[in-house]
Amino acid sequence: GSVSLKTEEGKQVFTQTAFYQGRTVAVKRISQDEVKMNREILIELKNMRDLEHPNLARFIGLCVDVPNVAIVNEYCPKGSLMDILQNDSIKLDWFFKYSLISDVIKGVQYLHRSELSVHGRLNSSNCLVDSRFVLKLIDFGLPSLREGASQALGDHALLTKSLYVAPELHRDPKRGPTKEGDIYSVGMLMGEVATRQGPYEAESKNMELSEIVDKIKCPPSGSLSQPFRPQVAGENVDSSISELIKACWAEDPKDRPNVNSLNASIVKINRKRNTGTGILDNLLNRMEQYANNLEELVEERTAAFLEEKKRAETLLYELLPSLKQGKAVDPESYDSVTIFFSDIKGFTELSAQSTPSQVVMLLNDLYTCFDGIIEHFDVYKVETIGDAYMVVSGVPVRNGNAHAREICNMALALLKAVGSFRIRHKRDQKLHMRVGIHTGPCVAGVVGLKMPRYCLFGDTVNTASRMESNGEALKIHISSDTKEILEDFGGFNIELRGAVALKGKGVQTTYWLLGNSEKCVNAVTESEFT
């Protein structure tokens, strides 16, 4: 979307967009139960449709279907003036600032001469910027309907908007919008562009927004007393611009310049700075400025892309060195690796109670969680098949005997994560994961050319799978081979399970991995799930 405001948390809220008659349009929703199309509203709509100016966002129409009541306007892809000013990657020289200020003034000048006669809601969030960096005003007219749009804003957004409102309108809200009030708001926008800071930004560091609004409402107590206004002086602010801004902020509305004299003054200031004012010159300079900013952004993004591409190709060459050249890959033998298998006990029953999309969503959430955890260990994710998750360490990069330690620490971390994992469509149900781990030799290789897969082969793979299928929910089942290596490292809490008959392997002595006291990583016990 294009129009944005900042919430109290500093997050931007963008307007919705839609596709209408082959073009993208901006949609501003209104909280109203019904829209009465009386004569007054119809006249307002006609006046809005008749408005046409380069510095006004074109009014397209009004959607009156409840609950989708909305105002539809021209879409400006560069966002709001607030977005431009807060984007540090966009450099604003005097010419760029002059163009923005000039566009605001010209838009207001046209409105003051039109049937609407005033804007009444000027602020940097409803000054939009199109693809050519031409500033366009929005949110003018239709006062009875726009009250509903304002009600949807939070307190912080409303207070921020009120900083642009003239003091006399704060004191008498029933007075309605005035041309003098628009000039005050234009002064706020000029100050914002000149300093690249929001109104009263310096003051807001020590005061709440509500306090600032109260001080704006309060009239000067004496002839020597100055009205409360934001700071505009600075190294980058021309003194003549500063004086013009202060004139727009005059306490007495009659002392403020009208829009015609304001436009003449800004043109005069620009001429003194030897800047061309032709329309073509303006456009060419804007596009040149934008191109320069874009080149810098492209260079930064390209450098980041090349770095990521280099990392990806390095990994590809490590895993699939010959495959990238269209050749077959020779299998490689590894003397000692540790393989991890896990699955979800009762997954078939859970799937039968869920829709296919819910099952996919569950597995995606779970494996996204797992993938984030295994990044912290020296392991390689081999594959996932349904609810089965397979990981290895010591392949493709050998790491001595550290593979057993890495896999077991990873298994403890995954089991702990399962304890806090929640199924979206069954919030009260928890997952019961079984884990099996075995250490031994294996062969690794790439199978296929069109859709290649890096696969592990050997008895170690089968044994690790049997360790998982013969395990228990919420426990880590390890073989005696894995246990022997873990004892060399120390610090692991291991409990003898006893003799277990593994299909195709006979009776073997196996163990439960309960935790790692050295790293304070404890497996989640079954009691935590009941």
TrEMBL record:
Subcellular compartments: Membrane
| Protein's GO biological process | cGMP biosynthetic process; intracellular signal transduction; receptor guanylyl cyclase signaling pathway
Catalysed transformations (reactions): GTP = 3',5'-cyclic GMP + diphosphate
Q: Which residues form the Guanylate cyclase domain?
A: 338-468
- GO annotations of cellular component type: plasma membrane
SUPFAM superfamilies attached here? Nucleotide cyclase, Protein kinase-like (PK-like)
Primary site of residence = membrane
Protein name (Swiss-Prot/TrEMBL): Guanylate cyclase
What organism does this protein naturally occur in? Strongylocentrotus purpuratus
